[in-house]
Amino acid sequence: MNHNYNNINSSILLSNESSNTISLSKSSISVFIELPFILLTIIFAMFYVILIIIRPTFRRNKLNWFTVNVCIASVLLSINVLSMNIGRQFNVPNYIPCRVQGFLIIMSASQLMYSHCVVSFSRLLTIVYASKHFFRTKLCVWTCIGFGWLFALLVSLIYLFVDGFLCLTLTKSRFLPFYTLFTNLILPAIIVAVCNIRILWHVRRSSRQTHATNGKKRGCYIRDIRLVKIMIISFGIVFTGWVPIILLQTFALYTLMNSSLGVYFQILLSLTMLHGVLFLIYTNPPVRLFIKQIVVKRYRNIQYSTVFITIQHNIHLISNR
Q1: pTM beyond cutoff 0.85
Q2: Which residues are listed as membrane-spanning (predicted)?
Q3: CA–CA dist 286, 291 (Å, integer)
Q4: Residue 178: CB partners within 8 Å, gap ≥ 6?
Q5: Coil, strand or helix at 162
Q6: Per-residue pLDDT of the chain (321 residues; tens, 9 = 90+)
Q7: Among 61, 81, 267, 281, which has the highest number of CB atoms less than 10 A from its own CB?
């Protein structure tokens, strides 16, 4: 009887160890797949931000500062996710309280989501209330961006006072996941949808008048609408990456989170962040043209240097004969 009982206990222990090993290996795989995506996101986003800042032509275009804001938020979120994954994977001691870690991640994620809301709201003011000069100034742009950062900070402050998803305690609040679902997904989606529906309705209503009166004004509208469409797609990309992760945490589906499906969702999040940054770079024609010119010029220089070295080598061979 005791012998059978010991066998049962040993089998349970072995099954627990094997399940832990499997979950650990899946976590390791996801971290090593996510790592290049996160690093590339940081590199491309920082490259874009630096390029906009150092080039006066790009810097004078106030619309570029909205995409810079999105890229900065992507960098902050990528750095937080990267540090968290490295700490878990390599058992690096972390002396930062779990509430502060959760606040930093949620705040950067909120900023990434609300940076798209800032673009939609600013374009709403610019297009619908075009007669107001202040709405088309850089001061208005910086005011909207600053308000977006402040709002993302305020909605994330609760994580400093309540145990969140990074705290390994039994006193986690069940309210907090639903709060995160609303503030990080539902509310940004509502803001983006309402602002853009209002913009498209206004443009459709006034398109005939604009076409008949002022071609320059119509060109400004076309440029604004193009930015709105770009930011809608960018928001959709980021939204797609965040939906599975937040839903799993909201409804406490920890079994799925530790399964292969959860690993795919984590990889999807890092992949969508990279895709969002590359999409912003690609959809900026002056930046894309500038990068293309640099690549073509560098390729031609390499070709010229290769030809020059080959000619020198042939001349050296002929002279030795």
Answers
A1: no
A2: 29-51, 63-83, 103-127, 139-161, 181-201, 227-251, 263-282
A3: 9
A4: 250
A5: coil
A6: 444 444 434 433 333 434 444 444 555 677 778 889 999 999 999 999 999 999 888 888 888 999 999 999 999 999 988 888 887 777 777 778 888 888 999 999 999 999 999 988 988 888 888 788 888 888 899 999 999 999 999 999 998 988 877 776 655 667 888 998 999 999 999 999 999 888 888 877 776 565 555 555 556 667 667 777 887 888 899 899 888 888 887 776 655 566 677 778 888 888 999 999 999 888 888 888 888 888 787 766 666 666 656 666 666 666 666
A7: 81
**Residue 41 in tokens:** 């996101």
Q: How many residues does the chain have?
A: 321
Residues in contact with 246: Cβ distance below 8 Å, sequence separation at least 6, in sequence order = 177, 180, 181, 184, 185
